[in-house]
Amino acid sequence: MLSHLNLQNNNLWGNLPTSMGALHQLNVLHLSNNNLSSKLPTFLVNCTLLVILDLANNSLIGHIPPDFGHSSGNLVILSLRSNRLVGVLPTSFCDFSHLQILDLSNNYISGTIPRCLSKLVSMANTVVENSLLLYQDDARVMWKRNDQTFGGFFSLSFLKGIDVSNNRLEGHIPEGISSLIGLKFLNLSRNNLTGPIMSRIGQLTSLESLDLSRNHLSGKIPLSLAQLSSLAMLDISDNNLTGKIPDGTQLRSFDASSYMGNPGLCGAPLPKCAGDEAPTMAPIGDGKQDTKNDFLLGLYISVVLGFIVGFWGVCGTLVLKRSWRQAYFRFYEDTRDKIYVIWVFKIARAWRRS
């Protein structure tokens, strides 16, 4: 029975034959990079053993079947990017317990991101335990903005991520995505998402690439984002984020382009926030001038204190104590009389000699 079918990179066009629905043992189907223009084939729900389904870069139209996830529970890699799919993401996607790579980018999908995506068991686990990829195969993935091919069990089993960029999704980012701790990449850019970045985003400790750019996200950058030590690519530009970029070596390692387009955002590597300017420090000299200034300051203080103590020690006592004041003036008068008598005696004696 046919288990692998690879017809990618051809000039196939039109509809897929319904006879493909009879391939019940099909594990891998590659039809990317063609000109297929039909609706997403409903007969694929009969291919319950599919592990890799790659229909990227075609012209497929219509909605994603609402029961798609119920019948394709073995899918590990699902790539429908760069088509013309419309409608909402069915909640049946949350039943993909083995799904590791979900790529729906570059379509016209609308509505909100299902909150139940937190139930994607394989993405919520950092341990490699998926035996469905034990055969040799490959898949093309947008990895850090580059279209790359990953092949073989070792490469694919460690790669986990969600890319729903360039659609028409709206509403808040579900907080439950923070529980998908096995994610290596998360790309929700170029949508109409609103509200804050998930407060517990720091739980995604395996995350290497995060792109939330070109949305309408608001609020402050969560402090936990600075805890993502494995993060190698970050873009949260062109949103409505405000406040200071959290301190941390990891976040400061990205250039300003990762944060541009958020008028209320500040802090390194963007311009400083108001009030962040460090106080001006006086230039450090050789110490001689400082020593001289200290001496003069001490001298001035001593003179002032000496004057205050001396003046008020004498005059204040005379003013406040009557007996001392009388004794002082009596002493003054006696001294004046003595001086007067002495000078008169000296003048008289000098006159006699002459």
Structural topology:
Layout lengths: L3 E3 L6 E2 L13 E3 L4 E2 L15 E3 L6 E3 L4 H4 L5 E3 L4 E5 L12 E3 L4 E4 L26 E6 L2 E6 H7 L2 E3 L4 E4 L13 E3 L4 E4 L13 E3 L4 E4 L13 E3 L4 E5 L4 H4 L11 E3 L21 H33 L1 H32 L1
Parallel strand pairs: 1-3, 2-4, 3-5, 5-7, 6-8, 7-9, 8-10, 9-13, 10-14, 13-15, 14-16, 15-17, 16-18, 17-19, 18-20, 20-21
Antiparallel strand pairs: 11-12
Structural notes for this entry:
This protein has helices at about 70, 150-160, 250, 290-320, 320-354; strands spanning about 5, 15, 30, 35, 50-55, 60-65, 75-80, 85-90, 100-105, 110, 140-145, 145-150, 160-165, 170, 185, 190-195, 210, 215-220, 235, 240-245, 265. A hairpin with a 2-residue loop joins strand 11 (about 140-145) and strand 12 (about 145-150). The chain folds into two domains: about 5-265, Ribonuclease Inhibitor (Leucine-rich repeat, LRR (right-handed beta-alpha superhelix)); about 315-354. The protein has about 350 residues and is an alpha/beta fold. The strands form four sheets. A nine-stranded parallel β-sheet has the order 1-3-5-7-9-13-15-17-19, with no helix packed on it. The protein has an eight-stranded parallel β-sheet with strand order 6-8-10-14-16-18-20-21, with no helix packed on it.
Please provide a brief summary of the model.
The protein has 354 residues and is α/β, with parallel strands linked by helices.
Defining key terms:
single chain, 354 residues, alpha/beta, Leucine-rich repeat, LRR (right-handed beta-alpha superhelix), 9-stranded parallel β-sheet, 8-stranded parallel β-sheet, 21% strand
